[in-house]
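Batch manifest, entry 17 of 40.
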Amino acid sequence: MAGPDPLTFDHLNVFPGLVHGVFSRAEGYSKGPFLGLNVGLSTGDDPDIVNRNRNLMLSSIGLNRGLFLNQVHGTDIAVIKSEKDAAGAVWNGQGTAPSIIVKADAAVTNLKGLGLAIQVADCQAVVLYDPQKEVVANVHSGWRGSVADILGRCINTMVTQFGCTPASIRAGISPSLGPCCAQFINYKREIPETLWQYKEKDRPYFDFWQISRDQLGAQGVLDEHIETMGLCTRCRTDLFYSFRENKATGRFAAVIALKN
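Output type: structure tokens
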């Protein structure tokens, strides 16, 4: 099998000390509704096949270990500053689950060679990189994450825990549910009024890509340092998994790491 060919963010490709990629569902081992490169263990897919997919994904960008979070649509952020912090929580490509499952929806690290993976099927994975401090982060931001401003919380963690400067941080927003398909019929109950400005005038459809750009900007990230892939997962199920479209489906991933 040919290795997966990840999508990358153009403005991050200029940094030689960084490796990253957004992996479509192509070139994986899963079958049925999970067809392709499903890296989600909670989907109902065969765990052995999911682990093969994870290994294939990481190895394709030169990594042999990764942090896969137990994502719960919360605001907890895993901070990995040392190998001790990572001990027991890192998937090492051997097909066995780590002994410690980290429940969080974002991770930040300055360790080299550790891939931070976020698994999605309509939500955003937002990769962050500070080339001055050599710090990377990856954030799971669905609509609940947007409401809770998990992006702002992660930027603040990078600042307080690693001394990062927001104006130095680069951000990339993965394929996710686009404004064409982000319908929220019950938005008056689910989404705070402060975010209604991102709704279409006459339809309950929201632009979460712009919400994320503005939340990053509110923390001091420069607009020219933010790149959005602009691909809607529900419109492009040939490339990506979409829970809204298929319900029983896999998870694709975005990964970012500092090179060894």
